[in-house]
Amino acid sequence: MGYQMKIPSDRDDVIHWQVFHGVKADATQGVGEAIENLPNLPRTQIAKLFRSVSEALTNVTQHAYMKPRQDGTGLASDRGWWMFVRQEPDELTVSFCDLGVGVPYTVPELEKHSSWLQTRLKSLLRAAGVHTHQEGEIIQATVDEKRSRFQLQHRGNGFANMVEAITSVGNGKMHIVSNRGAYTFEKSGTHEDARAFNYSESIYGTVIGWHITLPKEAA
Amino acid sequence: MNPAANVVDVGQDFTRFPAGRTYSDGPFCGEAFRDQFLKPALERRQSLTVDLDSALAYGSSFLEEAFGGLIRLGFTKDEVLSMITLKTSDPFLKAEIEGYINSAQP
């Protein structure tokens, strides 16, 4: 992100990350091969992970930079994204981030164009006991709505596909942290748990992470 | 692409790593695939088999724009469904694409 660290690190949890950066939703410049060549992950799960990353890439170019950032820094002028990949013996981590306006901003903006979805979002928030649009619940409602297979006219269901990268594995976790809100989806065997969180400070952007626990025989 | 057999193999003829909806997203987006392969075949009234299995996976926006976008260009659902054959070992992928074609509005 432009920051040059002057002290090289030899820590194992620092040096073993693959890093990718781009502006376009173009997976042919390293991202696709990085996912495809992950060892110890079955082909079907690699495909679901690539589909998740493809959805994240497209969200950035379609929505993330629809307005200037709200922090007044003028950063993120290249409208870019960053992806980080790390495979440990027992866990795979893929993180994807942008410095855009955030899911809690873009979703309500897009839904202004759909009275049906606007009503549905409010209904979901009410059902969750939320009477104001807290950002974590907006993210959760967006994922849940997409998982219910609704498609806003010709819009796809990108967030639901991101979760499928975890539902298809035995154990894993996905998080979406965006501005002041967060959503986590965790799967442990047959148990699934989804939660929303809210924070007092904004990260002014979005971080999506997938953590997949690798089977012992593969690790 | 094998023009004699009217078959397009996505992974060989386009990319193994498709992503994005429109040209503004990136070069290997759904709109580019539609314009390079699907639209010309339909305009020539030629049937086309799309072999999907050699690409790693497809995002929803890519698929919707490539196939559902044909309806927005003016082709009918019957034309698209009858002239384009989807070849894949993944029945969910085939159903997803057919869903985009059926739900797209002209």
If you had to describe this structure to a student in words, what would you say it looks like?
The complex is a heterodimer of chains A (219) and B (106). Chain A is of the alpha+beta class and 219 residues long. Chain A is built from 7 helices and 7 strands, in the order αβααββααααββββ. About 5% of the residues of chain A have low confidence. Helices cover 48% and strands 10% of the residues of chain B. Chain B has a 3-stranded parallel β-sheet with strand order 1-2-3. The model of chain B has no long low-confidence stretch (mean pLDDT 95). At the A-B interface, α2 and α3 of A face α3 of B.
What share of the residues of chain B lie within helices?
A: 40-55%
| Unreliable parts of chain B | none
Strand arrangement in the largest pleated sheet of chain A: 1-2-3-7-4-5-6
Spatial separation of the terminal alpha carbons of chain A: 32 Å
Give the CA-based shape of chain B: globular
Class by alpha and beta content of chain B: mainly alpha
Strand content of chain A: 15-25%
**With helices defined by DSSP (H or I, 4 residues minimum), what is the helix count of chain B?**
5
Largest sheet of chain A: 7 strands, antiparallel
Q: Which percent range describes the beta-strand content of chain B?
A: 5-15%
Number of helices of chain A: 7
- How helical, in percent, are the residues of chain A? 25-40%
Main sheet summary of chain B: 3 strands, parallel
Low-confidence spans of chain A: 147-156
Strand order within the widest sheet of chain B?
1-2-3
The secondary-structure element order of chain A is: HEHHEEHHHHEEEE
User: Could you report the average pLDDT of chain A, rounded to the nearest whole number?
Assistant: 81
The total beta strand count of chain B reads 3
